[in-house]
Amino acid sequence: MAKNTKIPKIPRTPKLAKTPTGISGLDEITFGGLPTGRPTLVCGTAGCGKTLFSLEFIIRGAMDYNEPGVFMAFEEKAHELATNVASLGFDLRTLEEQKLIKLDYVHIDKSEIAETGEYNLDGLFIRLGYAIDSIGAKRVVLDTIENLFSGLSNQGILRAEIRRLFQWLKEKGVTAVITGERDGPSLTRQGLEEYVSDCVILLDHRVIDQISTRRLRVVKYRGSLHGTNEYPFLIDEDGISVLPVTSLNLDKPVSTQRISSGIRSLDTMLTEGGFYKGSSVLVSGTAGTGKTSVAASFVNAACERKEKCLFFAFEESPQQIIRNMKSIGMDLQKHLDKGMLQFYASRPTLYGLEMHLVAIHKAIRKFKPKIVVLDPITNLITVGSVSEVKSMLVRLIDFFQSEQITVMFTALSLNTIVNEQTDEGVSSLVDAWILIRDIESNGERNKGLYIMKSRGMPHSNQVREFVISENGLDLVDVYLGPEGVLTGSARMQQMLQEETGAVLHTHALSRKDREIIRKRTMLEAKIESLRSEFESAEEELNKVYVEEDIKKAVMEENRKKMTELRKGNARDILPTKKNRK
Amino acid sequence: MSDSSNGENQTDEEFYILRLFVSGTSPNSVRAINNLKIICENHLKGRHELEIIDIHQQPLLVRNEDVTAVPMLIKKSPLPKRRLVGDMSEKDKVLKGLGLV
């Protein structure tokens, strides 16, 4: 929304007083309303909504701002007016009885009138003056004063009188709206803009490609800032709503709170459980990849969390969506019954792009949702050019951000080149972009889901297979093998194959293990026998050594004894024995 | 300011009921009153009723009679109802408007 920021002018100069019109959106564009106590010219071609504009100005003034108003009609009779606005829910009769509104129908029929000399419009002044004074009116509408020119022929007098009338209205201090029919290059047929120069508002009704769009532009506004663009406006059961192009200032509050996407595995991919609150998410993909299902599951999760959701369906009817989502295990009907969910379905071709924007704005302001889904934005392209759609979406995203609404767009991409931007070029504007892509192989189509971007959070860079079953949506890790990315039945097959392989492998392993154990025991036994053999051999060897020693000793002894005996020296025998001990 | 005579209703001599709305004593209004009086004297003698109304005095009547430009003369009878605006200085147009030509 536009901020009420006024550029400070020269200090101490009283600011131009403004009278709020009560027409939604217009007061934002004009930064407060129409100039108080001055006349404003509202002009446009036939059927552009001038009379309704002026009537709403009077009625809103009477109802919302306690400013009684006089409506002087030169075209329609009072009861016709009352009937016309009754369809908008305004009760003119009651307001008239409450002395908040006074209607006066001025009828001038050329066939009934003959001019016989000089005259002036004092009669009109008296009537208007009387009407203003009788209810203390602050607002006046003259619709359409130019009709005087068709009834009276003396242009000189009329022009002078109209100039006097506007001067007189200014003196009276009433805020006036004068309507004028647009004709050719000039704003009004009789050049009323010459007389009313404080504020001029132009209404326009254009038909492009058989679709009509109403637009409003503040052509001039003396002494005040005003939005200069053409603003689309909508006439519906609540009267006029003007859509101010939201200022694209990037100072929106941001949240670090996460909200679940409704698909647990997707939340895991996004780390820490989902999208940021108040962010914008784009889900794009080719036809039949389940974009609506992703959106529905997002909505479903939000409704379960007791957050209000608004679902704009541009393709399917609400009943269709509910039925279709039931088949994948989501009951949207119960959320609808509880009032947590609301559908807003309309064909894109129903009205122009700007009208859609206004309608979306209105619906959001009314329902105040936390989550909004637009499914799909690509259908809007049928009613506008690419750049128009983009500018609309920019404004929409901006609006959602300022309202802290998390929004999910779905977009149909027409080809499958991954790096392709979406047709609307919104991918640069959104905070998160999820792409669902067909992966075609082995005679089947499967869906691969990627997170193309997700601002401000680490996220998985992997391709997951997106599976829709009667239990809902899920993401499965795709098989990344030597043969590339496998999905669907190929993935299943590969997985089975792997499983078989694994079983066989373990079997082979255990057999080998057993063999090793066997071999080991065998070898160990062998080692044991060798060892005992070695021991016995060792023992044998030892035995030989000992025997040899004993033998040697004994032989020595014997030899000595023999020597002793041979010499016959008995005395030598004893000391020898002693020494040995 | 009424001048009436009853009774003699001839076929082509209808009775006229006229209402003249004027704005106080503005030059236009004064001229209109004078011009109209002369015309009535000359053409409608004895068979008309002229009511002169100051719009400042009777604003409600102004609205009810749907008066915009002044001076305005409304021929209420005989039908068709006609309105003449201006100071009645163009006599031919006034006579034509009143159906007296």
Plain-language structure description:
The complex is a heterodimer of chains A (581) and B (101). With 581 residues, chain A is of the alpha/beta class. Helices cover 39% and strands 24% of the residues of chain A. Chain A folds into two domains: 18-242, P-loop containing nucleotide triphosphate hydrolases (Rossmann fold, 3-Layer(aba) Sandwich); 262-477, 3-Layer(aba) Sandwich (Rossmann fold), CATH 3.40.50. Chain A has helices at 26-29, 50-64, 78-86, 92-97, 122-135, 147-151, 155-172, 264-269, 291-304, 318-326, 333-338, 353-367, 386-402, 488-567, 573-580, and strands at 18-19, 34-35, 39-44, 69-73, 101-105, 113-115, 139-143, 175-181, 199-208, 211-221, 230-236, 239-242, 258-259, 275-276, 280-285, 309-313, 341-345, 371-375, 406-412, 432-441, 444-454, 464-469, 472-477, 479-481, 484-486. In chain A, the strands form five sheets. A nine-stranded mixed beta sheet of chain A has the order 5-4-7-8-3-9-10-11-12, with helices on both faces. In chain A, strands 17-16-18-19-15-20-21-22-23 form a nine-stranded mixed beta sheet, sandwiched between helices. In chain A, strands 1-2 form a two-stranded antiparallel ribbon. In chain A, helix 12 (353-367) runs parallel beside helix 13 (386-402). Chain B has a four-stranded mixed beta sheet with strand order 2-1-3-4, covered by helices on one side. Chain B has three helices and four strands; from the N terminus they run E-H-E-H-E-E-H. Helices cover 31% and strands 24% of the residues of chain B. Chain B has 101 residues and is an alpha+beta fold. Chain B starts with 15 loop residues before the first strand and ends with a helix. Chain A binds chain B through residues 104-108, 112-124, 126-127, 129-131, 148, 151-152, and chain B through 21, 23, 26, 28, 31-32, 35, 55-56, 59-60, 62-63, 66-73, 81-90, 93-94, 96-97.
